[in-house]
Design a protein that fits this description.
Elements: E1 10-12, E2 16-23, H1 26-38, E3 44-57, E4 60-74, H2 78-88, E5 97-99, E6 103-105, H3 106-115
Antiparallel strand pairs: 1-6, 2-4, 2-5, 3-4
Amino acid sequence: MDRTQPPTAVESADGLAVVLTTLPSLEVARELTRVLVSERLAACANLVPGVLSIYAWKDEICEDDEVLCLLKVRRERLGELHTRLATLHPYDVPEFLVLEPEAVSGPYRRWLLDVTG
């Protein structure tokens, strides 16, 4: 099998992005991401509880249990998503880290574009 060629069912992920953010609890994460999905700013949110975050904040090294959120979104709506997330997020400085996927299955891409259009 030639590993340099993606399978034919995989398409370019141009126009799509994955946004990472963290939240303090599953309850907060569920509530916030349901708003983003209902407003069509995200097609899907995966919530990963039990993430241990170690970070610098106000000259201290902090350690907190958090929920990692992976948001599947349209790139063209990143500005709207960033603004809305900043409004809803309980942190002073919410994480907003954008990843650019290289490829995606065709049916998933069409679904994502449909539900966020």
